[in-house]
Amino acid sequence: MTVIDVGEADFEREVIERSRTVPVVVDFWATWCGPCRQLSPLLEDAAAARDGKVVLAKIDTDANPSIAQEFEIRGIPAVKAFKDGQVVAEFVGAQPRPAVERFFDELVPSEADALVEQGDEAALRRAVELEPGRPDASVALARLLLSRGEREEALELLEPVHGSFQADGLAARLRLEDEAELGEAFAALDRGDLEQALDQLLGALESTNGDREDIRRVIVGALDALGADDPLAREARRRLATALY
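Structure (tokenized):
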């Protein structure tokens, strides 16, 4: 069932608990509300089109004033999306069909999202077919190709990827694979010893006159994978700034 009527007695079960397994979009409406009558069919169509991947719960605010008060409903139609028991998106007022469709699309993983989550080679290749240049799929697949020594295909795969430090770093590494002095650093990267890898890459950056830009890209890609708050990343960024400037 993709559309359900919900009230105060079953809101906790039908919305909060259900949202822990499937997104639930709540339509706060009332019989006297003209814009509600315009919006509701669009919400129902969007829910039905997603074949059970999103549930639409309809709440009459006149019949359920305590829920309307709890969620601070001051104007209707009001729409709130729940995931894992929490409101994750919302809007107020009637919206055109394209806006409603986009709202639902953001709640439901795309086919490519699911394929990237699956993570095997066939799934990653299909994700790249569906969304060429998608960074997470392209980087994961390129790493797999690198592990098999298929460097040219990995580089070609990364060419259309833009705005990804990890993709830029991996492409730079592929260009540097034949540099013997970086072999230990790359081996450390492959076995997950980022502290040793970054130490050696930073040392190479400080001592070399050539390939500095590609070495920098490899370092920045590794730092991006670590995340801004990682202590190792903070120290490496300090050393990187010193080496560059």
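The first helix runs from residue 11 to 17. Strands lie at 3-5, 24-29, 55-60, 78-83, 86-92.
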